[in-house]
Amino acid sequence: MGEINMTPLIDVMLVLLVIFIITAPLLVNAVKVDLPHANAPSTVDTRAPTLAVAIDKDGNVYVRDQIVAGEALDGALRQAAATHAQTEVQLRADRAVPYGRVLEFMAQANRAGLSRVGFVSQASE
Length: 125
What we know:
Layout: H1 7-28, E1 37-38, E2 50-55, E3 61-63, E4 66-68, H2 71-83, E5 88-93, H3 99-112, E6 116-119, E7 122-123
Parallel strand pairs: 1-7, 2-5, 5-6
Antiparallel strand pairs: 2-3, 3-4
């Protein structure tokens, strides 16, 4: 027999495709945040770089889905500000987070040089 049997190769590729189709949506939002609902149009500026930040119900801060605190948070915010001055922080805060905690984060981002903060909400049905 002088040819390669393609059936096992195709079977493996189809299994991998199914695995990727199933796991891809799970990787999008690793931090579980119960976003507030709003009836507002999207005002995302696609030209400006963004920094994804989430605050969960326990008050933990996640930068790009990695938990950070204290000096590491200051460092991540300062690095984003140094990379591009117009970086927009896209803040996803759980509705159970106290307003004071959100203000503390906004003040910390402002001290780091990030003055553009956008609040991410869930569209109302």
